[in-house]
Design brief:
single chain; nine-stranded mixed sheet; binds manganese (II) ion; 15 strands; binds (2S)-amino(hydroxy)ethanoic acid; 421 residues
Length: 421
Amino acid sequence: VTLEFGASRNNIPAISIHPERLLDDLRTLAEFGKTGPGVNRRALSPVDMQAREWLADRLREAGLVAEIDGVGNVIGRSPHARRIVIGSHTDTVPDGGWLDGAMGVIYGLEVARAFMEAGGNGPVGLEIVSFSDEEACFSPMLGSHSYTGELNREVEFARRNENGTLLADAVRAAGLAGRAFARLDPLTHPVYLEAHIEQGPVLEARGIPLGVVTSIIGLRAWLVHFIGQADHAGTTPMAMRRDAGAALCDFAVRIADFCRGMGSEQTVWNGGNIRLIPGAHNVVPARAQYTFSARDPDMEILDRIEQRVMTLSSTVSAVHNVKVEATKTSSIAPAAMHPAIVHMIGEAAKGRGLTAMEMPSGAAHDAMVLARHVPVGMVFIPSIGGRSHDVAEDSTPEDIVNGAHVLADTVTALTRSLQQV
Ligand code: HGY
Ligand code: MN
Ligand code: MN
């Protein structure tokens, strides 16, 4: 899909956001699932759905037609044949921050409100989306995979969350069963924009208020499940044990050593969850489950890590006389942002007198899924202390407002210049 720009339609008024209204909505959204200074809004949980209903009402107030679709995506559409999509997600990691995802969605709400208040003129309108389960509570980027038609519902609806709940059951419990699934159409949706906190230390360390994302790293995750035998932790001789826990710890250290030895300076990896079953101090672990993930801009490096996960898990299982099942649970390819949009965001920052830097994203975003279907651009603002995925996550009101102005100015430029198809 190519971006067709024409002569600028200057009769279309600029979108001027209301900073205080934006900050108020962000603070109101943070009340849903509030946990200390952070938020706990796991996908399709009651608080996640309450927040989504609240958002749908705000979108309707802004003059958009809003719905919540069959996987929980919230979509607000302005009355235009072609619509720029602005989105992110309002679900969070456990005990996460108040801005991760939420900020990009509230930016979209505020831009849509300001656009409609200015008359909503011109041939190109807006579609605001809060994608469901971006944080892989059930299925990684469930909402954007569904919205782009990439979701294999058969397979994904059979996945479970950390409490063992089936996605199909959670969708039903949330009252979404039987609803249609909203879909992206490149002819209707020429561009996708997402604004997000950086979630890392780079912008703050350099004293730069604005990031223009150029690419998003690739991400893969695996569940490595060692199966041994429960035994008495006191009476069973060490040589007789089939200790799944010991196998997991051995694997965890060795796979990290491998990544450290072969990776680029952009290679990162993480052991996010360990489960020992039955998990009593006096029982040799019968089963041990390890969720391991790795990220890199280079698919070749991710392929080598994947290879190693498979071979090393079976080597270690033999050493510890246990069985192993290593399964890939997610694989999302790296994605490039569209150069023309990167340029437009840079121009918008300049127009605000803001220094901006082009940078890759170490975090995954729904934008990487959309990027396989339409041109995409992302705006970053600094994270205080580079912290995120924790209740400590925060950004200054000034940086939050700056980011919203830059997004709004980028949208103004697009509504004025995008050609009719
Ligand atoms: O994991 C990520 O990068 C994103 O926050 N889901
Ligand atoms: Mn996140
Ligand atoms: Mn996010």
